Amino acid sequence: MALSDDFVEQSCGGSRSSLFPYFPIRSLFCASIGGNIGKSDEEVEFGSLKYFLLCGVGGVISCGTTHTSIVPLDLVKCRIQVNPEKYKGIIQGFRTTVREEGFRALGKGWAPTLVGYSLQGLGKFGFYEMFKIFYSDVLGEELSYQWRTSLYLAASASAEFFADILLAPMEATKVRVQTSPGAPPTLRGCAPMIYRNEGMTGFYKGLPPLWMRQIPYTMMKFACFERTLEALYRYVVPKPRSECTKQEQLVITFVAGYIAGVFCAIVSHPADTIVSKLNQDTGSSASAIARKLGFMGLWKGLFPRIIMIGTLTALQWFIYDSVKVYFKLPRPPPPEMPLSLRKKLEAAGKS
């Protein structure tokens, strides 16, 4: 049943979301800037289908390019995880790989990385923006502000669930190319081999541990980024966001992204190790690999992954925000307490 017009009119001037017509629109973000985050003369309308599609394009560009650019580091990291006796560290891992296979080997897996993480970026960022608005509309303006961290966590987890379904086949192919001796070294050679030998199961058997790795990672990536960005503007940046140039805002985005990336790497690393090992040992299960590796074994390769994911996350947020600027997408500032909630707290003597 649709909500009453009076209820809708209390949210952002009475407009309804074109995507979610039965919920009040943009509650959390209306609180940020007085309800005025609709369409300006040049901007794409916030919450429109075009807005979500362009956010998805931003995700494709940010995730596809950044993950592909660090394939050599990712290759060494995966080899440390699956064969720590041979690959004992970053420098030694690079040396061993180049000595045995040549410099070209450092690019192994670039094609499935580009395809897979572009698709993942489409789902990750596009669905995040969608779920963030959806959950905010469900909660309403005041609860969206009070529970904003939970809102970020829920929206990012929901988005990553679907994004990983897009990523899983290419992730399985990438790890097989990078870590399995004798595997075809290209996407067009390895993917058909997996399908012939294992069917679709070969592409998706790593999906549950991929969810275990990526969903906590993405929850930390988005929630930590959003709250870090909010804290930077509140406590560190010496002037309001509205007075910062777009270039200054992008630098702050990069810093917040790097901080978030460090935490992302830590919370998702054990599952990342299991995914790498699972795609190498075709007959193993995630639980069997975890028991075999033990607690310390699950943390092999953490340092290179912190470097990789910290840089990766910072660049992704920087590129994503730059794409938003380029396409003139609305970029709401960090949320502020709604006036109605402020009045309630003042009346209760809590503010």
UniProtKB/TrEMBL annotation:
Q: Where are the Solcar repeats?
A: 50-134, 147-231, 248-326
Q: Name one Pfam family in it.
A: Mito_carr
Topology relative to the membrane = Multi-pass membrane protein
What InterPro entries is this protein classified in? MCP_dom_sf, MCP_transmembrane, SLC25A3/Pic2/Mir1-like
Q: Which GO annotations describe the biological process of this protein?
A: mitochondrial phosphate ion transmembrane transport
| One Gene Ontology molecular-function label | phosphate transmembrane transporter activity
Instruction: Tell me where in or outside the cell this protein is found.
Output: Mitochondrion inner membrane
Keywords in alphabetical order: Membrane, Mitochondrion, Mitochondrion inner membrane, Repeat, Transit peptide, Transmembrane, Transmembrane helix, Transport
Concerning PROSITE patterns, the annotation shows: SOLCAR (PS50920)
Q: A Gene Ontology CC term for this entry?
A: mitochondrial inner membrane
Give the stretches traversing the membrane. Answer: 250-268, 302-320
What the record says about family reads:
Belongs to the mitochondrial carrier (TC 2.A.29) family.
Q: What does this protein do?
A: Transport of phosphate groups from the cytosol to the mitochondrial matrix.
This protein is called Phosphate carrier protein, mitochondrial
